[in-house]
Amino acid sequence: MKELTFSTLVAVFEEMFGRWLFWALLALALAVALAFVLVLVRERRLQARRLILAELIGIAGGLAAVWLVQTVTSSRLTDVGGPIDAVAIMGIWITGAFVALIASYAAFGLISRG
Amino acid sequence: MTQSRSRRIDLDLSRRHLLAISGAALASGVAAPSRAAAAKVATKAHIVIAGAGAAGLTVANHLVARLDGARLTLLDARKEHYYQPGYTLVAAGLKSAGYPVSTTRQWVPPGVEWIEEAVAELDPQANRVVTSTGKSLGYDVLVVATGLDLDYAAIEGMTTDLIGRDGIGSVYAGPEGARRTWEEMSRFTDKGGAGLFQRPATEMKCAGAPLKYAFITDDYARRKGTRQKVKLTYAAHAGALFSVPIVSEKVRMLYAERGIDVVYSHVLKAIDPGRRIATFETPKGQAQIGYDFINVVPPMRAAAAVRKSPLAWQSGPLAADGWVEVDKTTLRHIRFANVFAVGDVAGVPKGKTAASVKWQAPVAVEHIVADLSGRKSGATYNGYTSCPLITRIGRAMLVEFDYDNNLTPSFPGIIAPLEELWVTWLMKEIALKPTYLAMLRGRA
């Protein structure tokens, strides 16, 4: 992989998830981000109690992301071998945690406003 | 005579297509292939691609994107397409036999004619290809991508129907063969005994695969708690475990650490399935090694039609097995200028992997497009290839190198090439197949 361009990455992700699922997932991510911004704009502040609950869900979301990747790849935490592996595991955990936090905060915000 | 004829055809082509493309925008004469930046070249040339495996399909998709009006013909009798890098995962019990299988049809780009027949004869003097039913096809440009033959018959006593019984496995023997190999290896690591691994003395596809399978077998025995009952031996065909010295040394150290014995200069000549004995040719004469499980890797040769054609190397180390005589940097035939070879069949010193195809195909295509538009291309292939060398389930080393045995890491300073890493395993497990499929479509 001497050359990694944006179009190559898109092509690879389309093959990985299937073209429609990949773009649907991206659209879903965008919708979640928009919902989060919408809730923030409506309330003009972060709700502390809701944020703490979302953070707890975020911790679980990070763990779920690590578990999912390891299950899909038939690997275990003991397979972590070098610094880049630790960085990758943390990256996966942070991504999962961030997505779960944003999604749950937005969902609670929309429900409470609904 | 042959050379001058080829050159004349080439010049005729150039003249004809120079006229045809008048007014068409041409790609700038860049050295590196850049499909996105290149405009389509108008041409009426007939390009025959012999072989619709990874190389043939990738070349076809690149050509469709680069040419306007060309007649493209793919020749291959096989209806199934096999993602061969997946065989190791099937033989490791991690994927089903269906995992590497798709259809050739789904990768053939629109506008390309696919003749579902094998190549029987190649006549580069007459610019003709003859199919298995006797159909004769003329061409302006020929891309040879017929792959290679697994020569199981060269090992006395070995037939493919033995795979999956009597302790015999062979990861290379297609998806079903890989599945049966897993069953046999699994039985072996349950019970224990002597496991034997080897590789042929010929050029071969993915020279890391036999090494990986010894690592995987070791790992399963450890996981099952039977490692004490298992003796593993790797029989190297020459004086090293791998053609790249630094990689060979690393594998030697890991084998020593895992307790995998190594014998050198052992070339498998015969097996006796009944007595479970493998006979090797060594510098000191024949040597016999008993086994309870063996992963047979047969000699590999260019596809028969290529081997007996004038396209094969006539002398030198690549002549014996009939690999196509191409310039290793341009993949253009040395004697027939309108012929290129891509993939396993190319007679180049290294690189019979999907990664090689990924980097060979754009170079060959760049030269073909340049020829058809009457210009010269400086595109070159440096022998780059890569191998995620699995060292246990869950870890691999990302080994990348070129013709000169230089390591060519894609992520220097981030992913160390000789370090056993989980992220490299991640790539092998989830990213390699989508990258391969994107390559077939000419998108990666």
Fold and architecture overview:
The complex is a heterodimer of chains A (114) and B (444). Chain A has 114 residues and is mostly helical. Helices cover 82% and strands 0% of the residues of chain A. Chain A is built from 4 helices and no strands. With 444 residues, chain B is an alpha/beta fold. Helices cover 29% and strands 23% of the residues of chain B. Chain B contains 9 helices and 24 strands. Chain B has helices at 2-20, 54-66, 87-91, 174-191, 209-224, 245-258, 304-307, 354-372, 422-440, and strands at 41-42, 46-50, 67-68, 71-75, 80-82, 101-103, 112-115, 119-123, 128-131, 136-138, 141-144, 148-150, 168-169, 193-198, 230-235, 260-263, 267-272, 277-282, 285-290, 293-295, 300-302, 339-341, 385-392, 395-401. In chain B, the strands form 8 sheets. Chain B has a 5-stranded parallel sheet with strand order 7-4-2-11-22, covered by helices on one side. Chain B has a 5-stranded parallel sheet with strand order 13-20-14-15-16. In chain B, strands 8-9-10 form a 3-stranded antiparallel sheet. In chain B, a hairpin with a 2-residue loop joins strand 18 (277-282) and strand 19 (285-290). In chain B, helix 2 (54-66) runs parallel beside helix 8 and helix 4 runs parallel beside helix 5. Chain B is globular. The two termini of chain B are 40 Å apart. In chain B, 54% of the residues are buried. The interface between A and B is medium-sized, with 26 and 33 residues.
Could you list some keywords that capture this structure?
heterodimer, A: mainly alpha, B: 444 residues, alpha/beta, five-stranded parallel beta sheet, 9 helices, 24 strands, disordered N terminus
